[in-house]
UniProtKB/TrEMBL annotation:
The FtsK domain, residue ranges: 453-652, 816-1007, 1100-1283
One term of GO molecular function: DNA binding
Region (Disordered) residue spans: 1-21, 714-743
Keyword Transmembrane helix among UniProt keywords: yes
Alphabetized SUPFAM superfamilies for the sequence: P-loop containing nucleoside triphosphate hydrolases
InterPro entries from the UniProt entry: AAA+_ATPase (IPR003593), EccCa-like_Actinobacteria (IPR023836), EccCb-like_Actinobacteria (IPR023837), FtsK/SpoIIIE/SftA (IPR050206), FtsK_dom (IPR002543), P-loop_NTPase (IPR027417)
Bilayer topology: Multi-pass membrane protein
Keywords: ATP-binding, Cell membrane, Membrane, Nucleotide-binding, Repeat, Transmembrane, Transmembrane helix
Protein name: DNA segregation ATPase FtsK/SpoIIIE, S-DNA-T family
Annotated binding of ATP, by residue: 476-483, 835-842, 1117-1124
Gene Ontology cellular component list: plasma membrane
Principal subcellular localization: membrane
Any Pfam family hit: FtsK_SpoIIIE
Length: 1323
């Protein structure tokens, strides 16, 4: 059967009911009865006296008879006049009473006509709402069909017959005198009038069915069924199928009686089908009917009078005839919400507090069980033929699904109804988009209904194109429905416009619930939420929107058009142009946005000024309108929408009147002001409500197979044909039934889901903020092993050129992201990474190292790391590119690393000069061709924790700075990580050409921009480039992960993998000073006693002490640090270089440690106590004074030392602090000879403990030795002794290691170890 879709118009108002009251006039009263009136008689007394006087005058003799006659007649007339006057008063009373009676009866006649008109008006109004059942076909064939809505007070109200009702025009009796004082005829007429017209007879009597869970009809079968047909006919005529459903439960012998109901659209199932189409809600058994109605009906709550009716829960009338309901039936027990059991014949057995039992007779309808059996009405009946005709008349009709607005201000409706979408899950998207392809139809969308039921549309086009836009403002208080209206507007525009015609930028300053889910629309260019918690994103959004405006300007300029309108017109005429969609920017809570970021107003003004031509439309929404902040934008806001406001003043600010403040508290009520004169009240539709259950076919079957079957169309279920095996195999999986539908799915979800993937996706104006760090495999091309280059990137353009990615850069203005490249091959070869603790400095350093390692071989790039940042660089130790990783406590390795690179720099400076190498680029080319001055390529000194260098390795700061100052030209790079820029001295900071500024502890210390630095989020790896752009550092891993929880494991695995695939040698390791240096490994003494004391830390070369140039030597240190061993080295060197006759040794050895080493032939004296040493020193002084050159000694002889003869004297004093002498010390006799030691062959070597060393330097001999420039070796000693010799700082050193201190430098040396000849081999 073909169906026709109709649209229910707004409900037409019927004739008005009479209202008010009529005060009746008082009937006339009886006049008072009057007696003889003496006063009236007295008025004739002068006339009588005159007549008597006349008689006396003529009573004289001379009077004739005529005079007597005249006098008699005069007297007689006087008497007559008196008696006639007395009788006239009684006649006038009667005439007056008759006149008043006539006037009052005339008045009642006039009032009777007025009352009869009211009665006719009463009957007409009631008959309009409740016409006779026989005339219902006229309603079904006209525009009043299905006019009642759930919001109407008379929803589910039916006519049950005609009866007597009180007149709506109330007659008010007058206040009268007692009845006996009233004129009887008039009073009787008044009583009869009031009795006749206080009630109206023959008026339709209605029953409100929603107040009952069941209505029982008792009486003869013909009367009860005729009455039930009349009730059903009214229900299906005035109520639409989606609001009211009808189900029939009839015994098998009474199916024919109700077969006519099969034509009713109200009887069709929305969830089941049979062979005849949609299943009919008609059954012969209770359980069968509940199965047809579905679980939603069976699971309804307990009966509630006047419960709200909704599309998800329509009002359901179950007609039961001849079926006894089971005891467990909830229909019989107490009833279901929004359900009525109409029991024909009273056989169902319904019980409950809301049960109504009616006794139906031919001329009498009464409530059963009442004591008086009072008659309600004369019942209505409808024959079966008329019922079937009415049902057939409505059979092909269906509603469109669009909103019906009889009382739009009191009706809830959704967007699907506004758009006429019956099934949001399967509506034709292209069909709704296609009509909007015309420019005139674009940007127009329904948002609600007006007071007259008409659809209110918002047209965003500019006024020149007949619209209301392009920009507007929406203001609504909390709970006014502002967010819901925004969602309705956005989803409505998306449903009716293709992404080629319209895109969205949706901004929610607070939270993000307003546009939740809208990011899945193909129209969405950006959804920007939760800006209040992440204020830096506000600036990013400003850049993105500004960049989009600039991009659109450039696109129009290139196309040669001045506006989007001209562009689209040219495109519509066939010009080869890409789509240029309108961009609709919706900003919720813009007032708070401007309060936080006032500078954002500049962008709003820019959009307001240029958006008209660029196709950018702006809608600002907020709870309040801050006129002080928005005044610059006022002139650009074309339309205004005001929902309920907080105050009348706010309403006037938005729409010019206070009406918005007086709107109902229910959400969705508002005013639309589209120009200076038009103000339209509306109620908005919604999209966040639950989606009504879809039509689900039970036991689906192929339509082609059903079409081949011809089956009778009856009220009962028609079994489906058995599907073929092929059809069974091809049948899609069965859809879930209604009970399985997710109740959380909203209309907005369904519409968005339907549009997902439809049309081309919108251009992304807003890329997601940098949140998840990428891994190196995302930034680099494919990493593959190579037999020659190892594991690396074969296709990276920067391979071997020191140009590598280390992260991604966010460019919101260009609406893209770029690689964060470290280009270290030129002037920006030094790197500075600065950030507060735990901001990702060490991770970024590892990323840089591994990125270079994946694009360079260990022969091209080497790394030497000083790991002062927590040990994270230690995971790189196994990398073949890494020569060393030194921690803070490994002081020797730290110093050796710096020294090694310093030595390399000096070597390259000489080599470049010798070989004529012009630059490092030329050197790199030479190395690639197989030539090179050393084993190194580009060398990187990586320092993680610059503050540690300044605090614990202050002497290395200058050396590293020298590497930075001179290293770039020779391939030496410095990479520094610090917590603040101020930790790095300005002259070193200026050399760091590549800078990465992570989040700082204090944004004011930023070298880029303090304002931009304040906006860096607290995420590891986030920072700023030197251009002020935000970046996110990559993670040093190749597994695609973005987590830092297992980063150490992933980094270690990558390091092992690189090492496994490298076939060659790794980076040269850092050479360290040995923990113990055997003296035999030192070169022998040479020359005029040039003794090798050990190896220096800087170049690992021998440290010589030339006694010929500097005749004396000092040594200080704690016990067991190597002082005595130094004296052994000197003694051995003396004995190796000289024979006993050439050199003699004077030993001061209180601990007897040197005695076994020096043979007796070399010993000239041996002292273990102070007095002995003083005596020996005095004797030696006497002998040495004789060698002092005189004035006759020429410079030549002074160099040859030929004026004296004898052996050289070496005085070796161990533990000088243990020798106690006089005021000047035990060696005071020798003090004056110290300056001439080289000339006279006198050499003093003193070893002393550092305990009290600062005071000991006041000793004349020690002070004199330092003044003469004699060097000293400072072995390990504690900090509390302070600095007492030159610039050397107290240091804890291994045994045998010392600082070689001169006036010009401090050098760390490892002294040679010479074992004692005896068993005791201690130092």
């Amino acid at each position: 059967m073909s169906t026709f879709v109709i649209s229910r118009p707004p409900r037409r108002p019927g004739p008005p009911l009479p209202q008010g009251e009529l005060e009746l006039q008082e009937p006339p009263a009886l006049p008072e009865a009057q007696g003889a009136d003496v006063s009236s008689v007295l008025t004739y007394l002068p006339m009588g006296l005159g007549s008597g006087a006349t008689v006396l005058m003529f009573a004289n003799p001379g009077a004739n008879s005529g005079m007597y006659v005249a006098s008699g007649l005069m007297a007689l007339s006087t008497v007559g006049m008196v008696f006639s006057q007395l009788g006239r008063s009684s006649g006038e009373r009667k005439r007056k009473l008759k006149g008043e009676r006539r006037d009052y009866l005339r008045y009642l006649a006039q009032v009777r006509r007025q009352v009869r008109r009211a009665v006719d008006q009463h009957r007409a109004a009631v008959d309009w709402d409740h016409p006779e059942p026989a005339r219902l076909w006229t309603v079904a064939a006209g525009p009043r069909l299905w006019e009642r809505r759930p919001a109407n007070a008379d929803f589910a109200e039916v006519r049950i017959g005609t009866g007597e009702q009180r007149s709506l025009l109330r007659l008010v009796p007058p206040q009268t005198k007692p009845v006996e004082d009233l004129e009887p005829l008039s009073a009787g007429a008044l009583r009869r009038f009031i009795r006749a017209y206080s009630t109206v007879s023959g008026v339709a009597t209605a029953l409100h069915l929603r107040g009952f869970s069941g209505v029982e009809l008792v009486g003869a079968p013909a009367e009860t069924r005729g009455f039930a047909r009349a009730v059903l006919a009214q229900l299906v005529t005035f109520h639409a199928p989606e609001d009211l459903r009808v189900a029939v439960l009839a015994s098998p012998d009474r199916v024919d009686t109700w077969e006519w109901t099969k034509w009713l659209p109200h009887l069709e199932s929305t969830r089941a089908q049979d062979a005849a189409g949609a299943a009919r809600l008609f059954a012969t058994g209770h359980d069968e009917l509940l199965a047809l109605l579905g679980p939603d009906f069976a699971n309804r709550g307990e009966f509630e009078p006047d419960a709200p009716v909704s599309p998800a829960e329509p009002y359901t009338v179950v007609l039961c005839d001849g079926v006894v309901l089971p005891e467990h039936s909830r229909l019989a027990a107490g009833g279901l919400r929004n359900a009525l059991l109409l029991d024909v014949g009273g056989t169902a057995g319904h019980e409950g507090a809301y049960r109504l039992s009616l006794e139906v007779d031919r001329d009498r309808l009464a409530v059963t069980g009442t004591a008086d059996g009072r008659k309600l009405a004369v019942p209505d009946f409808l024959g079966q033929a008329r019922s079937e005709s009415l049902a057939r008349l409505m059979s092909p009709l269906r509603t469109s699904g669009a909103v019906d607005a009889d009382e739009p201000m009191a009706t809830d409706f959704d967007l699907a109804q506004l758009l006429g979408i019956r099934d949001p899950r399967a509506f034709p998207v292209d069909a709704l988009w296609r009509p909007r392809a015309q420019l005139s139809a674009q940007l127009r969308v329904p948002i609600g209904l007006g007071e007259d039921g008409s659809v209110v549309e918002l047209d965003l086009k500019e006024s020149a194109q007949g619209g209301m836009g392009p920009h507007g403002v929406l203001i609504g208080a909390t709970g006014s429905g502002k967010s819901e209206l925004l969602r309705t507007l956005v989803v409505g525009l998306a449903t009716t416009h293709s992404p080629e015609a319209l895109n969205f930028v949706l901004v929610d300053f607070k939270g993000g619930a307003t546009f939740l889910g809208a990011e899945e629309l193909p129209h969405t260019s950006a959804v920007i939420t939760n800006l209040a918690d992440e204020l830096p994103l506000v600036d990013r959004m400003q850049d993105s929107l500004h960049g989009e405006m600039t991009r659109r300007q450039e696109l129009l300029r290139q196309a040669g058009h001045s506006s989007r309108l001209e562009y689209e017109k040219a495109r519509a005429q066939g010009a080869p142009l890409d789509p240029f969609p309108t961009l609709f920017v919706v900003c919720d809570e813009f007032s708070e946005l401007l309060a936080t970021k006032p500078e954002f107003m500049e962008l709003f003004v820019m959009i307001g000024r240029l958006g008209r031509s660029l196709g950018v439309h702006l809608l600002l929404a907020s709870q309040r309108l801050d006129e002080g902040r928005i005044h610059a934008l006022e002139s650009h806001l074309s339309y205004r929408i005001a929902l309920r406001t907080f105050s009348s003043s706010e309403s006037r600010s938005v729409i010019g009147v206070a009406d918005a403040y007086e709107l109902p508290s229910a959400p969705g009520h508002g005013y639309l002001k589209k120009d200076t004169t038009s103000l339209v009240r509306f109620r908005a539709g919604y999209v966040s409500g639950p989606l009504s259950s879809p039509v689900v076919e039970e036991n689906p079957v192929e339509p082609q197979q059903v079409a081949r079957e011809v089956v009778p169309f009856g009220p009962l279920h028609q079994p489906l044909p058995t599907p073929s095996r092929a059809a069974e195999a091809e049948r899609p999986p069965h859809s879930p039934d209604q009970s399985e539908v997710d109740d959380s799915v909203t209309l907005m979800d369904a519409l968005i889901q339907r549009m997902r993937g439809q049309g081309p996706p919108a251009r992304q104006v807003w890329l997601p903020p940098l949140a998840d760090p990428p891994s190196l495999d995302v930034l680099l091309p494919a990493v593959v092993p190579d037999p020659h280059r190892g594991l690396g990137t074969a296709d990276w353009a920067g391979s071997g050129a020191l140009r590598v990615p280390v992260g991604v850069v966010d460019r919101p203005f260009e609406q893209r992201r770029d690689l964060l490249l470290a280009d270290l091959g030129g002037a920006a070869g030094h790197v500075g990474v600065v950030g507060a603790p735990q901001t990702g400095k060490s991770t970024l350093l590892r990323t840089l190292v591994l990125s270079l390692a994946l694009t360079h071989t260990p022969a091209e790039a080497q790394f030497y790391c000083l790991d002062f940042g927590g040990g994270t660089l230690g995971g790189l130790a196994g990398l073949p590119h890494v020569g060393s990783v030194a921690a803070r406590l490994d002081r020797d390795r730290v110093r050796r690393t710096v020294a090694e690179l310093t030595d390399l720099l000096e070597h390259r400076e000489r080599a470049f000069a010798d070989l004529g190498v012009e630059s490092m680029s030329a050197y790199r080319r030479a190395r690639r061709s197989g030539a090179g001055a050393d084993r190194y390529g580009d060398v990187f000194l990586v320092v993680d924790g610059w503050s540690t260098v300044r605090q614990d390795f202050e002497d290395l700061e200058s050396a590293i700075s020298e590497l930075a100052a001179r290293g770039l030209g020779y391939g030496v790079h410095v990479v520094v990580a610090a917590t603040r820029w101020s930790e790095i001295r300005p002259w070193l900071r200026d050399l760091l050409g590549t800078r990465y500024e992570l989040r700082l502890g204090d944004s004011l210390e930023s070298e880029v921009s303090s304002r931009a630095a304040a906006g860096v989020p607290p995420l590891p790896g986030r920072g700023l480039t030197t251009d002020g752009l935000h970046f996110l550092g990559a993670l040093p891993r190749l597994d695609g992960g973005s987590s830092t929880q297992d980063l150490s494991v992933a980094t270690k695995g990558l390091v092992e993998e690189i090492a496994e695939f490298w076939p060659g040698e790794g980076a040269p390791e850092v050479r360290l000073l040995p923990a113990e240096l055997p003296a035999r490994e030192l070169p022998p003494a040479e020359g005029d006693l040039r003794v090798a004391l050990g190896l220096d830390e800087q170049r690992l070369r021998p440290v010589w002490h030339d006694f010929g140039q500097v005749p004396h030597l000092m040594a200080f240190g704690d016990a067991e640090t190597g002082k005595t061993n130094l004296l052994r080295l000197v003694a051995r060197g003396v004995m190796e270089r000289y024979r006993p006759d050439e050199a003699r040794i004077l030993l001061a050895d209180p601990r007897r440690a040197l005695f076994p080493l020096v043979p007796e032939e070399y010993r000239i004296g041996y002292a273990v106590a102070g007095d002995t040493l003083a005596e020996l020193a005095g004797n030696a002084a006497v002998s040495l004074r004789a060698r002092l050159p005189g004035a006759d000694i020429t410079p030549g002889r002074l160099r040859r030392r030929d004026w004296w003869s004898g052996p050289r004297l070496f005085v070796l004093v161990d533990d000088y602090d243990l020798f106690v002498g006089g005021m000047g010390g035990v060696l005071e006799p020798l003090a004056e000879l110290l300056a001439h030691g080289a000339d006279i062959g006198f050499h003093l070597v003193v070893a002393r403990s550092t305990s009290g060393a600062m005071r000991a330097m006041m000793d004349p001999v020690l002070r004199r030795m330092w003044e003469l420039g004699c060097p000293g070796l400072l072995f390990s000693y504690p900090r509390e002794e302070g600095k007492f010799l030159g610039e050397a700082q107290p240091r804890q050193l291994p045994a045998g290691r010392a600082q070689f201190v001169t006036r010009r430098s401090v050098q760390l040396v490892q002294t040679g170890f010479l074992a004692q000849p005896e068993e005791d081999s201690t130092w």
